[in-house]
UniProtKB/TrEMBL annotation:
Signal peptide: none annotated. It comes from Polarella glacialis (Dinoflagellate). Residues 117-154 are annotated as: Disordered. Residues 317-411 form the MSP domain. This is MSP domain-containing protein.
C-alpha cells in the first residue's frame, strides 16, 4: 500500500539469565502506488494443438498523472510462439488500453529442443571428392559437433534468457511453457538530462502460461490460398482432414459458421472422421475487387483446428478492336425481302491470366423492326474469353426500311 512505514526492531543480548544489553534499529519506508496496473497479472492461454491459434487480452491502465510510454519485451516467435499487439504504446494519464496476446505454436516451436539433422551433400557427377590430406600436411581443425543433449541444454538456456521455462510431459505428450513478459515503462516526452542520461525506466512483468496438445486432427494443406480470382467467378479448393488418434475412436467434427461478407463457403456438411481421410470443399466467390481472408474453425471432442482462408478478388478489363469502339457497316441496298446485308468483325481480347465472361447489351436501340429481325445482330452476344485469348463477334447489319443512318449503342 502507498503508506509510510516507521518501525523499530529491538535486539536483546542475553548472557545466562540476565539481559546484558538491548539496542534498536529504526526502519523507515514509504510505499508508492503502482504506475501501471493490469486487469490480470497472470494469463493462462487455451491449450491447443500445433498449428491452431488462441487469443487473450489484458487491459493496461496508467495510474499516474503523466503520460507513460510502454514497450513490451516479447521473446522470439520461434522460441515462445507468442505475439503481442501493440508492442509499443503511449498511455495518457488514467487512460486504459487493451493488450492482445496471441499464441500460435508452429513446428519450429514444438521441435525447438530437437537437433536438426544435417545432410551431407554428395558430390555431383563429374566432381571429385575432397582429397585425403597426406602425412605432413597441415590439417584444418574440425569443428566439434555437439550432441543432441548439449543442443537441448543450449536451447533451454536461451528460453531462460528470455524469461521463460519449458517442460514436456512424456505420458500425455503435452508441451508446457511459462513466461514472464517484461514491460518497460518510462515517462513520455521527457528529454534526456544534461549528461545525456535518459529518464528513469521501471520494469513490470506479466505472466503468460501456454500448453501445446498432441495433434489429433491433421489438415492438409494447413492454409488455403485461392490466389487471384475474377470477381463474380467461383473457385474450389479441398481441405483433407486425417484422424491421427485412431485409438480414441471417431472424431465428431463440428464447424463454426464463416462470415458472410468474406465470400468463403464450405459446400459439404461435416461428418465424423475415422480411419479414412475426410475432404471438405471450400468455395471462394469474390464480389468486389479486394483481399478476403478469414479462418475456418473446426472442433471435435478432443481438439480444435483452424485453417486460414485467403483470396483476392480481381476484375481485369477486356479490350476491343477497333479501339475507338465505332464500327462502320457501310451502305446496303434495301429490298422488300430484307435479303441484302453486310457484316463486320468485333474482336474481344483478354490479356489477363483469368478467363472472363462477357455479355453485349444494347443501351440505345436503332429504329426497331416490328415484323422481323432487328437491324443489328451480334453473334455470339455472350460467352467467355479464355485467359490471354480473344473472341470474335460477328456484327450483321440488315436494314428493314430506307433510312439515312442506322445507329445503335452497345455496352
Amino acid at each position: 500500500a502507498a503508506t509510510e512505514m516507521d518501525y523499530n526492531i529491538v535486539f536483546k543480548v542475553i548472557t545466562g539469565d540476565l539481559c546484558v544489553r538491548d539496542f534498536s534499529i529504526g526502519c523507515l519506508g514509504q510505499g508508492v502506488s503502482r504506475i501501471i496496473s493490469f486487469s490480470e497479472t497472470q494469463v493462462d492461454m487455451a491449450s491447443i494443438p500445433c498449428g491452431a491459434m488462441s487469443k487473450e487480452s489484458v487491459v493496461i491502465t496508467n495510474n499516474s498523472k503523466v503520460a507513460q510510454l510502454l514497450n513490451v519485451l516479447v521473446p522470439l516467435s520461434k522460441v515462445s510462439g507468442l505475439r503481442v499487439s501493440p508492442i509499443c504504446v503511449q498511455l495518457e494519464p488514467h487512460e486504459s488500453k487493451r493488450l492482445q496476446i496471441e499464441f500460435r505454436p508452429t513446428k519450429d516451436f514444438t521441435n525447438l529442443l530437437k537437433k536438426p539433422v544435417e545432410e551431407i551433400p554428395e558430390p555431383a557427377e563429374g566432381e571429385q571428392a575432397a582429397p585425403t590430406p597426406v602425412d605432413g600436411e597441415e590439417q584444418k581443425p574440425e569443428e566439434q559437433e555437439i550432441s543432441p543433449e548439449e543442443f537441448k541444454n543450449q536451447q533451454l538456456a536461451s528460453v531462460r534468457e528470455y524469461g521463460g521455462r519449458r517442460w514436456e510431459d512424456p505420458e500425455t505428450g503435452t508441451l508446457h511453457c511459462s513466461w514472464r513478459l517484461g514491460i518497460c515503462v518510462r515517462p513520455a516526452g521527457v528529454p534526456n538530462d544534461v549528461n545525456g542520461k535518459s529518464p528513469k525506466t521501471s520494469l513490470v512483468y506479466l505472466g503468460v502460461n501456454t500448453c501445446v496438445l498432441p495433434t489429433v486432427l491433421l489438415a492438409e494443406p494447413a492454409q488455403l490460398d485461392f490466389g487471384e480470382v475474377t470477381a463474380g467467378q467461383r473457385h474450389l479448393l479441398p481441405v483433407t482432414l486425417t484422424n491421427l488418434a485412431l485409438q480414441d475412436g471417431l472424431q465428431d467434427l463440428h464447424m463454426e459458421a464463416l462470415p458472410e461478407n468474406q465470400c468463403f463457403t464450405v459446400l459439404n456438411a461435416a461428418r465424423p472422421v475415422g480411419g479414412k481421410p475426410f475432404q471438405l470443399m471450400v468455395e471462394f466467390k469474390p464480389q468486389l475487387v479486394q483481399i478476403y481472408q478469414c479462418t475456418l474453425s473446426l472442433r471435435t471432442q478432443n481438439t480444435r483446428l483452424q485453417v486460414p482462408l485467403r483470396g483476392k478478388g480481381v476484375r481485369p478489363v477486356l479490350k476491343i478492336e477497333p479501339e475507338n469502339g465505332v464500327i462502320h457497316m457501310g451502305s446496303v441496298v434495301f429490298g422488300k425481302g430484307c435479303k441484302d446485308y453486310t457484316t463486320a468483325k468485333l474482336e474481344i481480347k483478354n490479356e489477363s491470366p483469368f478467363e472472363l465472361p462477357y455479355k453485349l447489351e444494347t443501351i440505345i436501340r436503332a429504329d426497331p423492326n416490328h415484323t422481323g429481325p432487328p437491324p443489328f445482330t451480334l453473334t455470339p452476344s455472350s460467352g467467355t474469353v479464355e485467359a490471354n485469348g480473344s473472341k470474335t463477334v460477328t456484327v450483321t447489319f440488315r436494314p428493314h426500311r430506307p433510312m439515312a443512318v442506322f445507329r445503335e449503342k452497345i455496352l
